[in-house]
């Protein structure tokens, strides 16, 4: 059912070396590797068990770590008895605040260029407790089982202090405006409240979304070893260079003394950054003088790794009789800990989704004593589009306008709150194509009117949207051998999304080499660049760096080719990579193979390293990925059970690099969105701040029986202002999905549920 059509990236302006832009000018003449369905090159290794994950590195004298956690939200450790744990079989040592080495707090994510810490608290440095679930002791033993058992023997008593673990109480104590990306999460254009009172039709409703915990299939883990003052960390990471720099700051050593690798990651979703476990593992390794493997249990991830914070959102929309929006209000409160950097920024999508005369957008933060919250797939947009897109559905229903049409009607011609032109926005096409394919015309606009036996059936839709980012810090090294093999190296990440495969395709196409002549090295902090696999921007970062390095490589090759070459006199921007060599763009008959150029120059290999150009495209354009999401839901009239029977995502995300891995990313995002819509909820005991369902038995994520066949299509229209014509696709799938589900449930039942997850009790 993968209906993405192959790329047709021809006829674009040939400014090949501009600000990271533009498809390969020779794309028409090649096999067209980019865009095709190449299977993941790491796939065979994974299914054969040959891919070594963070917790699988073997070290001489390896010890195993287990943690004990606090059971109060705030206060002091009064007594800490580790004698039974120390006497248990196989125990090497027990580390607590009493014997841990001195360390600085982690540099908090986003507060410095390479900061990666999920919190900035002292780590096992004193008797203070800051959240319920904070690690208070680490046991090292000869086996994991011995460590796990001994950690259960650690006995602590606590002196609790007054804490804020109740959201109402936190709000009562006062809120402040959230900050994100260097600015306040607050925006007012015109007088939206006044406009709302003057329009003929309006909606003003409250939406809420719960706390969510990260559940990557691979729990967080690291294998750690010291060699003198040099620290080696085999991590599961989406930020290897950031992690290395941050650990060097924690331990007071030079950045060059920390080496972080992360060749395989079993899912990240924003959580595979630096948390206390890597620091504790390294500290314990230092103390024991032995390598350490620290693997968080599933419960450990819930206790120590932050998730998505809860939100309470007000969305008010005012429109004229034709459905044109006059006022958009999106305000509300999120919970946040004292020690973290992310107030769930639920207004981000609303800033650019629709045209309107007046806007009032505001995220306020209520502080709580709890685990630091953090990034989770489309932080902001995933839950913000739930409020916005449900409200728009309510407005459409009130006006008697088709929900697809009201979105198209309010399509802006430039960014509605920033005024910048769109680099590439073809969402109307995505809506039309999607509606056609989904059979939207068959939807009955009257809620509760389609029934098959016990099942009420409805259709709903919503817009998905996520920004294009490209962070500075991209750099790549290309090593080209005379035999026509190219190795690209970049400190990037493969978390299962297909990065290594897609960028092997990009490199092979750019250099004019077959795919099996390209290797892509990544996941190692010693490689060039400081790239984050986050914000759906890694591909753009990598691509810009590869294009820059390719340009440098061609420049060197032309110098080596000299006057004896058919390419003599050509500038780097006048040649392309084709059939294992360089070719003149203006005359494909003028060419010379890499082997020939390097052979005449007496070179076996050429190594180039280049930085990506700064992301100037972001200054000039408003850039986003878009999706038109369609859902068919069946709700059991007797039990209230909701089943999703069909889902379609119709995407406008620029040029697609690999149809197979892209389809998987889209589907994965949508599946996570189905979880957000129907089941995910961290149960937080508001009396003491304890997470009560720290396991996949009690915290539900979609299983196979919850997921229908998901159809994904895309328009594949290249953005002329991005490195490969591509936009990010890692996070777009989860945006809009929950609203599409809730809107389908409304169409099926006539019941409007504004509080996620949409469990059956809310439909009875
Ligand atoms: Mo994503 S939440 O930027 O890994």
Give a brief description.
The chain has 764 residues and is an alpha+beta fold. It is built from 17 helices and 32 strands. Dioxothiomolybdenum(VI) ion (MOS) is lined by residues 238, 268-270, 375-377, 379, 534-535, 731.
Structural summary, described in words:
- It is a single chain.
- With 764 residues, the protein is α+β, with helices and mostly antiparallel strands.
- The protein folds into three domains: 27-49 and 471-614, 2-Layer Sandwich (Aldehyde Oxidoreductase, domain 4), CATH 3.30.365; 52-345 and 358-365, Alpha-Beta Complex (Aldehyde Oxidoreductase, domain 3); 378-469 and 619-763, Aldehyde oxidase/xanthine dehydrogenase, molybdopterin binding domain (Aldehyde Oxidoreductase, domain 4, 2-Layer Sandwich), CATH 3.30.365.
- Helix content is 24%, strand content 25%.
- It has 17 helices and 32 strands.
- Strands 3-5-1-15-12-13-14 form a seven-stranded mixed sheet. Strands 7, 10, 11, 16, 17 and 18 form a six-stranded mixed sheet that branches.
- Strand 19 and strand 20 (455-467) form a beta hairpin.
- The two termini are 35 Å apart.
- The model is unreliable at 1-21 (pLDDT under 50).
- The structure holds dioxothiomolybdenum(VI) ion.
- InterPro entries: Ald_Oxase/Xan_DH_a/b, Ald_Oxase/Xan_DH_a/b_sf, Ald_Oxase/xanthine_DH-like, AldOxase/xan_DH_MoCoBD1, AldOxase/xan_DH_MoCoBD2, AldOxase/xan_DH_Mopterin-bd_sf.
- Keywords: Molybdenum, Oxidoreductase.
- This is Xanthine dehydrogenase family protein molybdopterin-binding subunit.
